[in-house]
């Protein structure tokens, strides 16, 4: 029986989880409300909050799992990518915990973790793992990638953004409209009441498997600016339709590229991962396309789409089985790329 404790601290959520023989026993997350009044994550405030949260979060995760510290066989942590100050808190804690308890240290790539969330198992919850190889559309605030997952540790990025990520396009569009942070979920909420064809935004002309969202953000900025000049209450009076149109455009771009990847690879086992995979417009569109095109679709549970330690724990568990451990000299890497 192998038990892994995991730490996730890449951005503004402090999370700890316990996996035992592949089964999730606990997953505890402390959110940071302080960033809302600044309209985005403030790195210095995030790292300070992690320092305050990490000990009680880990303590609660261990107690919720009904375990003792002596029963933990290894500790996994997010090495990167992410905010350097935030990552350092998690890395330092993990190194100290491993040293104090004489257990292996396991470094995890945050993006690998998002894909691994598809393999999480909980007692009493029906779940079917994706079969290799499968295509993952990984979409978050910082990344938009199409990845061919050949095995648990063999992945190939075949498409990615050349500038901004889909999640950033959602959040920046919300900010342009004066919506509070985080704005992406609000666009999703309001889009359900709007007409997705009310306003048309041009899609970027880039490669078949490439994404680009900087031009779309600029187009939305100019559109809102020009309409507000004509009618100061434009956003308030048309909020639902604007949100629906923005969401429709972003989702349409993502689905088009995914279709290109399926056509090029011949793989029809499909998964989504990352924070934007929580978006209801993307989920519903994918379900419809899967039925229409006979794709086998895998969508993570909503609670495992955002940053969480459970996804780090399951990745760490599989690395433990391979005896793939880190040295005490390891440190955080804000721009870590290898998945």
Textual characterization of the structure:
The structure is a single chain. The protein is α/β, with parallel strands linked by helices and 339 residues long. Helices cover 42% and strands 18% of the residues. It has nine helices and ten strands. The strands form two sheets. It has a five-stranded mixed β-sheet, with helices on both faces. Helix 4 (166-176) packs antiparallel against helix 7. 47% of the residues are buried.
Brief digest:
This protein has 339 residues and is an alpha/beta fold. It has helices spanning 43-64, 84-101, 110-116, 166-176, 184-191, 214-230, 234-265, 280-293, 309-321; strands at residues 3-8, 14-20, 23-30, 74-80, 105-109, 134-139, 144-151, 154-160, 269-273, 296-298.
Q: What's the layout of helices and strands?
A:
Blueprint: E1 3-8, E2 14-20, E3 23-30, H1 43-64, E4 74-80, H2 84-101, E5 105-109, H3 110-116, E6 134-139, E7 144-151, E8 154-160, H4 166-176, H5 184-191, H6 214-230, H7 234-265, E9 269-273, H8 280-293, E10 296-298, H9 309-321
Parallel strand pairs: 1-4, 4-5, 6-9, 9-10
Antiparallel strand pairs: 1-2, 2-3, 6-7, 7-8
Helix pairs in contact: 1-2, 3-9, 4-5, 4-6, 4-7, 5-7, 7-8
């Amino acid at each position: 029986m192998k038990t892994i404790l995991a730490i996730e601290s890449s951005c503004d959520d402090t999370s700890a989880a316990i996996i035992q023989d592949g089964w999730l026993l606990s997953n505890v997350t402390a959110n940071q409300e302080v960033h809302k009044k600044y309209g985005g994550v403030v790195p210095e405030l995030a790292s300070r909050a992690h320092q305050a949260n990490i000990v009680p979060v880990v303590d609660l995760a261990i107690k919720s799992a009904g375990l003792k510290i002596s029963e933990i066989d290894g500790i996994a942590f997010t090495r990167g990518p992410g905010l350097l100050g935030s990552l350092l808190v998690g890395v330092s804690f993990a190194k100290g915990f491993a040293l104090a308890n004489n257990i292996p240290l396991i470094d995890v790539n945050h993006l690998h973790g998002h894909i691994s969330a598809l393999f999480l198992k909980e007692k009493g919850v029906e779940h079917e793992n994706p079969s290799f190889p499968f295509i993952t559309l990984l979409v978050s605030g910082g990344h938009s990638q199409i990845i061919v997952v050949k095995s648990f540790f063999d992945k190939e990025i075949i498409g990615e953004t050349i500038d901004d990520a889909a999640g950033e396009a959602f959040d920046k569009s919300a900010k342009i409209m004066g919506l509070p942070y985080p704005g992406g979920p609000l666009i999703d909420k309001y889009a359900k009441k709007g007409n997705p064809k009310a306003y048309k935004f041009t899609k970027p002309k880039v490669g078949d498997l490439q994404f680009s969202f900087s031009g779309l953000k600029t187009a939305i900025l100019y559109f809102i600016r020009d309409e507000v000049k004509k009618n100061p209450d434009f956003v308030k009076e048309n909020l639902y339709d604007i949100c629906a149109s923005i969401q429709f455009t972003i989702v349409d771009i993502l689905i088009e590229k995914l279709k290109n990847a399926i056509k090029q690879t011949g793989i029809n086992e499909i998964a989504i991962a990352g924070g934007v995979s929580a978006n209801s417009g993307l989920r519903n569109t994918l379900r419809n396309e899967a039925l229409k095109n006979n794709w086998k679709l895998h969508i993570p549970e909503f609670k495992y789409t955002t940053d969480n330690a459970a996804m780090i724990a399951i990745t760490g568990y599989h690395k433990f089985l391979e005896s793939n451990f880190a040295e005490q000299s390891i440190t955080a890497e804000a721009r870590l790329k290898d998945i």
